[in-house]
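Subject: design request, 453 residues
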């Protein structure tokens, strides 16, 4: 299944439509300009809470300052709901549907579009997206060639974070290949520090580990096929990747405490094992958001105390993986103020809206026109540049593309089976069979209810 692409002719038609309707269209491109929506209220729903929620509200304040519109933000996490799709379904049932939803998974975006809950984004938003984003991000926001979602916030999930002092002590340098990374892990262990701390308790970091290994080893074509269920989880490429992943947990010197310790370690604890007061490991794999944990939870200066390298390729003539995720702004069809919603999403597509959160930290944007100097530290600038430079090579998080019962449910599906696997990685073929059975059921159920793309 090929990913949808936005045709040049479609953009040309959008440009013509925009020219014709410029005087009639409201919002950021309208003739009336500033404060056009004074006295109106926009409702936005998303997952962000705590510091992220506060930073996003600053972005909303920027929209208010520009347009005069008041913005109310409803956070699913602040209301105790971790399942964003369920959160939106409940709002729909209660008649409190938001004008805009910040959808955290591409599979959920596809689900909402297929249910008829979303309003296609108009030409003016599509053109703003075309100016500021690589085509791959527009494609991930499209379902059956219809543009529904504008990716505002992204993550770079192919970064390995390390303690420069531990590397210096063991006389190792950032590796260029996966084999070099494992070899460096052995040197670090012999110098007194286990190589990795792994956040197995949270489970989702295990899916990210597997996805990076799979993409780096099997290549983008197979990755796309597995992500869309075109090949099964018993495919030889899957078994090979599981064997590669499992080798990490056969030696307690590579993963601090081995699989059992990993299953007791959440993400913050895994970062603390490298950057806390009593380091237990030299490296921790996860996305760019690790930098925010380092500076926030452990009060370390990222540029001084931390560094990262790209997740390395696995095997000869392979490319380094670039896996991302993100949050897309969609307009709900049953929202009360569609024009205001579209103007807000157009605003989110601008470099200015990205700059507001970038300055606060804990944020990465796929906007190619955002000045990298907006980021608060050199390390984040390097991560952001790596993501933007990847362009069309970016692959979206595989588990986010799967039905939730398989790719995103605690205690079930891929999460549970990979937890079981790192506890005992001796039989990757059996794990592959279980993964295949769970995926087949989830995709079949999703197909029957029209909830998968």
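Subject: RE: design request

Done. Sequence follows.
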């Amino acid at each position: 299944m090929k990913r949808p692409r936005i045709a040049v002719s479609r953009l040309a038609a959008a440009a013509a439509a925009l020219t014709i309707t410029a005087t009639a269209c409201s919002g950021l491109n309208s003739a009336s300009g500033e404060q056009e929506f004074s006295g109106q209220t926009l409702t936005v729903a998303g997952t962000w809470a705590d510091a992220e929620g506060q930073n996003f509200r600053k972005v909303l304040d920027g929209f208010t300052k520009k347009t005069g519109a008041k913005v109310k933000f409803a956070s699913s996490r602040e209301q105790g709901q971790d399942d964003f799709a369920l959160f939106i379904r409940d709002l729909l049932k209660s008649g409190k549907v938001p004008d805009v939803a910040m959808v955290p998974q591409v599979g959920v975006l596809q689900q909402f579009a297929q249910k008829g809950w979303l309003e296609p984004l108009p030409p003016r938003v599509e053109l703003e997206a075309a100016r500021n984003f690589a085509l791959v991000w527009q494609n991930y926001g499209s379902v059956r060639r219809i543009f529904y979602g504008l990716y505002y916030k992204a993550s770079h999930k192919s970064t390995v974070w390390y303690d420069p002092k531990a590397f210096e002590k063991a006389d190792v340098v950032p590796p260029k290949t996966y084999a070099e990374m494992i070899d460096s892990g052995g040197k670090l262990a012999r110098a007194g520090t286990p190589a990795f701390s792994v956040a197995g308790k949270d489970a989702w970091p295990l899916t990210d580990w597997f996805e990076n290994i799979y993409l780096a080893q099997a290549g983008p074509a197979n990755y796309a096929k597995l992500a869309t269920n075109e090949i099964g989880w018993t495919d030889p490429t899957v078994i090979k990747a599981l064997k590669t992943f499992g080798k990490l947990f056969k030696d307690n010197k590579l993963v601090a405490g081995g699989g059992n310790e990993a299953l007791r370690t959440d993400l913050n604890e895994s970062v603390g094992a490298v950057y806390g007061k009593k380091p237990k490991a030299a490296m921790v794999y996860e996305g760019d958001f690790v930098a925010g944990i380092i500076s926030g939870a452990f009060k370390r200066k990222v540029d001084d105390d931390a560094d990262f390298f790209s997740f390395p390729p696995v095997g000869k003539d392979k490319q380094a993986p670039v896996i991302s995720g993100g949050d897309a702004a969609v307009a709900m069809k049953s929202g009360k103020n569609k024009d205001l919603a579209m103007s807000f999403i157009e605003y989110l597509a601008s470099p200015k809206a990205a700059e507001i959160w970038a300055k606060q930290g804990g944020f990465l944007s796929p906007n190619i026109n955002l000045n990298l100097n907006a980021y608060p530290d050199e390390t984040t600038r390097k991560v952001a540049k790596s993501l933007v430079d990847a362009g069309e090579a970016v692959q979206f998080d595989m588990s986010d593309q799967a039905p939730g019962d398989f790719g995103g449910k605690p205690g079930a599906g891929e999460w549970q089976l990979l937890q079981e696997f790192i506890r005992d990685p001796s039989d990757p073929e059996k794990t592959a069979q279980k993964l295949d059975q769970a995926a087949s059921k989830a995709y079949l159920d999703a197909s029957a209810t029209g909830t998968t793309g």
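The two ends are 10 Å apart (CA to CA).
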